[in-house]
Amino acid sequence: MMYKVGVRSINSVRQLSRFRRWHELDLAEQHKFIHKFAENYRKRYPGSKTNLSFRGLMKDIDTYKDSPSVFGIFYNSICDNIDHGRDNGRFAHDSFRKLVLHRNDST
Description:
Elements (H helix, E strand, L loop, with lengths): L9 H6 L11 H18 L5 H9 L2 H4 L4 H15 L10 H4 L10
């Protein structure tokens, strides 16, 4: 017989978050985050070559009605950092933290 001791499912942990996860955002909310995130990143790290990559990824998101999944990874990472009290890393600055939506927020 197998026992699960001290194991919580990922879904139950995510439900404890004060923030909406990427998959819970509608397309307009995702696009708003993407544009604000890229603009903020450009201001914080103006010499970074990553800015070119972001520009390329954002190029036709409105045309294709899609959101590049890499931005979802960034979004969820910011949420996780806040939830777990981490204050280091590239997205630890308050300007990034202000971009995520609380569970009771709407656009």
